[in-house]
Amino acid sequence: MNSSVEAHHIISELIDHVETVVVGKRRVVKLITVALLAGGHVLIEDIPGVGKTVLVHAIAKSIGADFKRIQFTPDLLPSDITGLTIYNQKNAQFEFRPGPLMGNIILADEINRTSPKTQSALLEGMAEGHITVDGVTRELPDLFFVMATQNPIEYEGTYPLPEAQLDRFLLKLSIGYPDRRDELSLLDRVPDHNPLSNLKPILSVDDVLYLRRQVASVYVSKEMKNYLMDIIQATREHPLIALGVSPRGTIGLLRAVQAIAFIEQREYVIPDDVKAAVPYVLAHRIILKQEAAYENREPLSIIQEIISKTKVPVSLKEPIE
Known about the structure:
Blueprint: H1 4-19, H2 26-38, E1 42-45, H3 52-61, E2 63-64, E3 67-71, H4 78-82, E4 83-88, E5 93-98, E6 105-109, H5 116-128, E7 130-133, E8 136-139, E9 145-150, H6 163-166, E10 171-173, H7 180-188, E11 203-204, H8 205-216, H9 222-237, E12 241-243, H10 247-263, H11 271-282, E13 287-288, H12 290-294, H13 299-309
Parallel strand pairs: 1-9, 1-10, 2-11, 3-6, 6-9
Antiparallel strand pairs: 4-5, 7-8, 12-13
Helix pairs in contact: 1-2, 2-10, 8-10, 9-10, 10-11, 11-13
């Protein structure tokens, strides 16, 4: 892959490729692709049975990388995911046996079913790009992408992620039910075998790293940066928000809008890119005041209110050739 035309083509092909398995969820697939290209991680929260695990597995299988699935349970230990050091009696030396977290694409299934201590081991890798085992810091691969799932309605025996840990995810998504037409199509094409078994990789690790470098070069004008900061600042000043978006969220939003612009085959960011990213990047990063509950307000509705009230820049400067 050595041209922007080829890069844009392979991204469209990736989205189409995943849609052969996950019907009618192009928006969600595109957003996961945004996170992949921006170097962030994704949390998918939805009811059971809407295809969270299948979607994540389809994305992972479309990339020729080391894929690991971790089923989080209450008895899972940090060493079960990071690995551990054991004594090899044959050579009389201690050896590190890597855990599933040392892969490229990680499916963290039902992350809220495990203890905070084990959650922290995963989140250290997500935030720092390394893990610590027996006092030794070990670097994770250059391509390290976590897609975590959790069910919002099963509270017994779960450990909900606190806001400080939710902040480690670039995007928080919900898949939702398919519409009637798509679900009927799904019934018509129910196969005798698992559709994932026929899914072949169309991207390599090097391809993804190349695309990330291309995304990082997408131009963001001074006007667009100020527009982005106006939205961030509004979350810190809103009367119903107790804690606004952190600087980590600001950086994440910038990376996300660059990725959206790149997927839309542009070399610069426009206001629509920001509007498309903000609900998924910011809504899970704010903490509401008690008054918000009295008014029956949710984080997403407040974020959308902020978008609607923030002045859109009218003079945009494209990059100088």
